[in-house]
Structures are given as structure tokens and as C-alpha cells.
Amino acid sequence: MKIQAVRARPRKKAFEVTAGGHQYSFPFEKASPSPTREDPVVEVYADPELGLEGFSYGLRSGQTGAVHFEQVLEHNRDPGYLRDLLLYNLTLEAQRRVASSTLSKREIIRRLGTSPAQLYRLLDPTHERKTVDSLLRLLQVLECEVELVVRARTA
Length: 155
Description:
By secondary structure, the chain is α+β, with helices and mostly antiparallel strands. Helix content is 35%, strand content 23%. The chain is built from five helices and six strands. The strands form two sheets. The chain has a three-stranded antiparallel sheet, covered by helices on one side. Strand 5 and strand 6 form a beta hairpin. Helix 2 runs parallel beside helix 5. The radius of gyration is 21 Å and the shape is elongated. The two termini are 28 Å apart.
């Protein structure tokens, strides 16, 4: 997602990032180097060298830093980002399980009732249009048990 605007908010001790029509906050303390009252942000901009998918900033001391938008999404616990992260982790586990399975890929495809191309899309971590449901079906065919654990967030 491309960053449309970014600005430093010293009173809030955070960067304010606008992307995809949403506004996100990213605390100074999570950035490296961290801006402080003694060493404030003097410039901040959506960085074209990061493909506008991050921002760079400069401090009064001359130090510079950059933050990728994924860090902002992770800090804000964006549901879309968390879904993509879950899909990525399930995909990596499915790859490991397929590699160590005694089932042939042809048998996995038959049990899924799908095509070889679809299996390869499911196993491709860069393919973003798959669903959690399809990966759960694949893991079920591979005789895996998947548990989703929900717990309170720790500070």
C-alpha cells in the first residue's frame, strides 16, 4: 500500500501516516533512531526510494531513519495485515508438510479435488488471493490438526 501523506506529531510523540484512505499512528519510540524532545524531527516524507511504501525522516542531529509501512500496520494490528501474515505462515507450514508427506502431489491434488495449478498457487507464499479456508483444507488432506489460539494481548 502506498503512503499518501506522513507527518510528525511531536505532542503525540508519533508519526501520523495516511494510506489507503486510513490514518495510522506510529510512535516515535518504535522508530530507530527515535526522535526526542532534544533531537526532534526536522523533515519527514513518503520515500520514493521505498516505492512510497515507507517513509524517511531526519532529525536535528543529522541522523536519519526509515520506517516501512508494514511496521506501521503491524503496530496498529491492522486486520488485513494480520490476515496476510496468517496466510503466509500457513503457506510456509503447508510447504514443509507437503515436502515431508508420504503422499504424492498427484494424490494431494486428487484428495483436494483441484488442479495442479491450484495446488501450486496454494503453496506460493506470494500468491495473495488464496483463502485461509483453502489452506486449512490442504493441511487437513496432509493429516494436520490446526488450532487457533485466542488470548489477551500482553502489554
